[in-house]
Specification:
glycosidase; Malt_amylase-like_C; Immunoglobulin-like; alpha-amylase activity; two-stranded antiparallel ribbon
């Protein structure tokens, strides 16, 4: 849940129009079928066959498929914990991701801290704060392999977006410089002071820009 919210925070804070693909707002994940026979994508099937012929181990090939197969974006929408994720009472063309039992729209709507409601908060932030649309983008700490962070700045507002892309706690000294700013949103339910980001934690902090007028 935290990693899905972190990725959403990073994306929605950037320039351009964020596109939400079906199920992304629920935290739907890549599927990990235990057999190549369950995949339909011709590119995936051909790659599996070619790599077998080159001597790759099946487990190694499947690991690559889990990360990159186009079928990851083709599993049916997960509406509920009912059979076939509530997508159909018939037999779907493509197998439903087995995790539909716990990741589905019905569960999301019943959980006030779900990924779905977090997306709503992000969208509301974008609509209420012009800096999301008009602000200049500046990437910070470009060499950092664990933290992705940047600022957006317009004539009235500056905001910091800071995201931890790891499953461990990471220090981000930039947060000390922004300690007096207002936390607009973070993907953990409880606030925490200091410069340490928890696993997959993301935060957006806003502050007013000091405007010096000529004359």
């Amino acid at each position: 849940k935290e990693s899905a919210k972190m990725l959403a925070t990073m994306l929605h804070g950037m320039q351009g129009t964020p596109y939400i693909y079906q199920g992304e707002e629920l935290g739907m994940t890549n599927v990990q079928f235990d057999s190549i026979e369950k995949y339909e994508d011709i590119e995936t099937l051909n790659m599996y066959k070619e790599r077998l012929e080159k001597g790759y181990q099946p487990e190694e090939i499947m690991h690559s498929i889990y990360a990159r197969s186009r079928d990851n974006a083709r599993t049916p929408m997960q509406w509920s914990g009912e059979e076939n994720g509530g997508f159909t009472t018939g037999e779907p063309w493509f197998t439903v991701n087995p995790n539909y039992i716990r990741i589905n729209a019905k569960e999301a709507l019943e959980d006030e801290n779900s990924v779905f409601y977090y997306y709503q908060k992000l969208i509301r932030l974008r609509k209420e704060n012009p800096v999301f649309v008009d602000g200049k983008f500046d990437l910070l700490l470009p060499e950092d392999e664990k933290i992705f962070t940047y600022t957006r700045t317009d004539e009235h507002t500056k905001m910091l977006v800071c995201a931890n892309f790891t499953d461990e706690e990471v220090s981000c000294p930039l947060l000390d410089e922004w300690k007096d700013g207002e936390v607009w949103i973070r993907n953990y339910e409880d606030d925490r002071e200091g410069n340490v980001l928890r696993p997959y934690e993301a935060v957006i902090i806003g502050t007013a820009v000091n405007i010096v007028k000529a004359g």
